[in-house]
Amino acid sequence: MMIYGIGIDVVEVDRIEAAIEKQGELFLRKLFTQKEQEYCSRQKRPALHFAARFAAKEAVSKALGTGIGGQAGWLEIEVIRGESGAPTMFFHGNAADFLTAEGIASVQVSLSHARDYAAANAVAIRNPV
């Protein structure tokens, strides 16, 4: 296996919290899948968990070298808590097609959050050529 790319992102939780308060469901539906919304909404401070997923999606887009957009949209990059508790990445639509075309076997992500900030780093791993 080879590293295809790495990415990192840090988000101010207050920015996400303010966007949720101002735009509500419109903001959530635009950036987060139904599963992500369900998980985050069940948490004691949902904005903290939404911010971590926002950071993860940005970090993944940087690891892929695509940015958020045509090749990897907000709803095509999904962060789900695995059975072990670790975040697991799922890709849909154009993002899934991009990973296949580039020979990317997996994307590993790590999330962290505190009262004011959420952070994520991502590593995209390519199959040997």
UniProtKB/TrEMBL annotation:
Keyword entries, A-Z: Cytoplasm, Fatty acid biosynthesis, Fatty acid metabolism, Lipid biosynthesis, Lipid metabolism, Magnesium, Metal-binding, Transferase
Gene3D superfamilies: 4'-phosphopantetheinyl transferase domain (3.90.470.20)
Names of required cofactors: Mg(2+)
Taxonomic placement: Bacteria, Pseudomonadati, Verrucomicrobiota, Verrucomicrobiia, Verrucomicrobiales
Family per record: Belongs to the P-Pant transferase superfamily. AcpS family.
Top-rank taxon, per record: Bacteria
Boundaries of every 4'-phosphopantetheinyl transferase domain copy: 5-99
Reaction it catalyzes: apo-[ACP] + CoA = holo-[ACP] + adenosine 3',5'-bisphosphate + H(+)
Enzyme type, top EC level: transferase
Annotated residues for binding of Mg(2+): D9, E58
Localisation: Cytoplasm
Protein's name in the database: Holo-[acyl-carrier-protein] synthase
Chief location: cytoplasm
Record's keyword annotation contains Transferase: yes
UniProt EC number: 2.7.8.7
One example GO MF annotation: holo-[acyl-carrier-protein] synthase activity
Described function: Transfers the 4'-phosphopantetheine moiety from coenzyme A to a Ser of acyl-carrier-protein.
